[in-house]
Design a protein that fits this description.
Elements (H helix, E strand, L loop, with lengths): L13 H11 L4 E5 L2 E4 H17 L7 E5 L4 H12 L3 E5 L5 H8 L4 E5 L12 E4 L10 H5 L7 E6 L9 E5 H14 L7 E3 L8 H10 L4 E4 L7 H10 L4 E4 L1 H10 L11 E4 L6 H11 L4 E6 L9 E4 L13 E2 L4 E5 L12 E7 L11 H5 L1 E3 L7 E11 L5 E6 L3 E4 L2 E4 H9 L4 E9 L8 E8 L7 H9 L10 E4 L14 H4 L8
Parallel strand pairs: 1-10, 3-4, 3-5, 5-6, 9-10, 11-12, 12-13, 24-25
Antiparallel strand pairs: 1-2, 7-8, 13-14, 14-15, 16-17, 17-19, 18-19, 19-20, 21-22, 23-24
Helix pairs in contact: 1-2, 2-3, 8-9
Length: 512
């Protein structure tokens, strides 16, 4: 087991912290986009106006409110207002397919459409429209006085839905406040920091991007409206003097590939990765190409345990291969459990289990199997124990390492193969920028084999026989891919930007 003692403390809710900063530094910049800016006073004022409109439209505490709209000032004000009136925030990205939007809206009691956002027709729930905001005249009392109880729901996010109907995961005010407190104190985020908001609003990463700066007295920086092409992203980070940024590795790879060789991001002091296995080859490319000497953090935590539960500061040079998950954040424990429910010994792989008093509220309309993943600690009913479905092991120093998902480990020719570890070895080979490995059936009815989808560095080529020779020196024979497919990019999921392995299984690219 790794982690320190569990404390059970109360933290001010998100609206309360924002209102506090509005009292301390009302004229400090809270949100910027291009040349436009809102101060903390204006943000809290706008949230008060929106809260009044929502209440007048019949939105009440505890109701689920789907908020649809592009990244922007009004969207942030609506999110803050929904939390302030004790409703449950259900973010919905209008850029997603209509079927996905309906999956989200089916779970809501109201829909708030920001600006001229189109809402799917035929809904049986009320729609509230919030256009440009005319500021009120005073602080939002709801925000200033709101300190929610520990079990009060704050938000609802849906999983990606790649294995069926998406599951709704309920987050709590108290747990969100705890995580934001940990992040801003651990990394000393405060006035003067500029934090980028780049993630899809449907991905829970957006909660960290939006509310970390606004509960820290820092500035939330929004890119221009509409999707930003990869080639524009890092130049924007440089020109906006971004100091703190969150990213998914696959998305950040696209930024790096599209960046000019002379580009630098000198103000970026803190880069936080999450969502996928973080590999050393990419980290070293990032540091070399950008001449980056800031701090890089690997974060880990399922949405079910409230955003993030473990962290690891990547050394220089990076730990070879997949980066460790590190140690639990404050007030969290993690251990490895064997198939028979026992704690695994040091170095033994098993399921990662997390315990914290700051977990989520579980799944919405959970099945019996889904409920079984959550248990209550026998010695303290406030603590949630969650079986993640991820595999890992603890080293002799108590550092947690990631061994993949259960379905990422396969047995080929009697040998257990960790697919993400094979990718890490591939990405250390000359000329390979990104790799994704899947198990492919044999069209002739023979045993399945590994297919490696490869994105090559600019100007590079790949000779399969030479690559296999090098891989045989690093991997068991069963772990060396039988097929290599070169592609310009790897497919990603719409919400999170993670590598979409399901789409790779049907990839029809030609063999190399």
């Amino acid at each position: 087991m790794t982690g320190g003692a569990l404390e059970r403390r109360a933290f001010p809710g998100v609206p309360t912290k924002i209102a506090t900063w509005a009292g301390v530094c009302p004229d400090a910049p809270a949100i910027t986009q291009n040349s436009r800016q809102w101060t903390y006073r204006q943000l809290v004022d706008a949230a008060a106006v929106v809260a009044g409109k929502l209440s007048a439209a019949g939105v009440a505490g505890g109701q689920r409110v789907a908020v649809m709209g592009p990244r922007g000032f009004t969207l942030v004000a609506v999110w803050t207002a929904v939390l302030a009136i004790r409703a449950v925030l259900v973010p919905a990205d209008p850029a997603l397919p209509v079927a996905r939007q309906r999956d989200i809206l089916d779970r809501a009691d109201h829909v708030v459409a920001v600006g001229d956002t189109a809402v799917p027709t035929g809904l049986q729930i009320p729609v509230v429209r919030i256009a440009d905001i005319e500021f009120g005249t005073g602080m939002c009392e709801l925000a200033a006085q709101h300190v929610p109880p520990s079990d009060e729901s704050a938000y609802l996010f849906l999983t990606s839905g790649t294995t069926g109907r998406p599951k709704g995961i309920i987050g709590r005010h108290r747990s969100l406040a705890h995580f934001l407190h940990w992040q801003r104190t651990t990394f000393e985020v405060g006035p003067g920091d500029r934090v980028a908001h780049l993630a899809s609003v449907e991905f829970d990463l957006s909660l960290r991007e939006v509310f970390l700066p606004l509960t820290s007295g820092a500035t939330l920086c929004l890119p221009a409206a509409g999707p930003m092409p990869p080639a524009s992203l890092l130049p924007w980070v440089s020109s906006e003097r971004i100091t703190v940024m969150h990213a998914v590795p696959t998305v950040a790879r696209a930024w790096l590939r599209a960046a000019s060789p002379e580009l630098r991001v000198p103000d970026l002091r803190l880069l936080l990765f999450s969502g996928e296995a973080l590999k050393s080859a990419f980290i070293e490319r990032w540091r070399d190409q950008l001449q980056y000497n800031g701090t890089i953090i690997n974060l880990y935590g399922p949405t079910e345990t409230t955003l993030i539960r473990c962290w690891y500061e990547v050394p220089e040079p990076a730990t070879p291969g997949i980066q460790p998950l590190g140690r639990p954040i404050a007030d969290s424990l993690a251990w490895i459990e064997s198939a028979d429910g026992q704690h695994s010994r040091t170095g033994e792989s098993g399921e990662i289990v997390i315990r914290t008093p700051y977990g989520s509220g579980g799944y919405l309309d959970a099945t019996a199997d889904e409920r079984a993943r959550f248990t209550v600690a026998a010695d303290h009913p406030e603590d949630t124990i969650f079986h993640t479905g991820d595999l890992g092991h603890l080293d002799q120093d108590g550092v947690l390492h990631f061994d993949g998902r259960a379905d990422d480990q396969v047995k080929l020719y009697g040998v257990r193969v960790h697919l993400r570890a094979v990718e890490a070895v591939l990405e250390q080979q000359p000329g390979i920028d990104h790799a994704a490995v899947v198990v492919s059936p044999d069209p002739n009815g023979g045993p399945p084999h590994l297919t490696a989808h490869l994105v090559l560095e600019a100007g590079s080529s790949m000779i399969p026989t030479d690559l296999r020779t090098r891989l045989y020196e690093r991997l068991p024979v069963a772990a060396v891919p039988a097929r290599f497919v070169v592609t310009k990019t790897l497919p990603t999921t719409a919400a999170s930007g993670k590598t979409d392995y399901r789409r790779l299984l049907s990839n029809a690219s030609a063999d190399c």
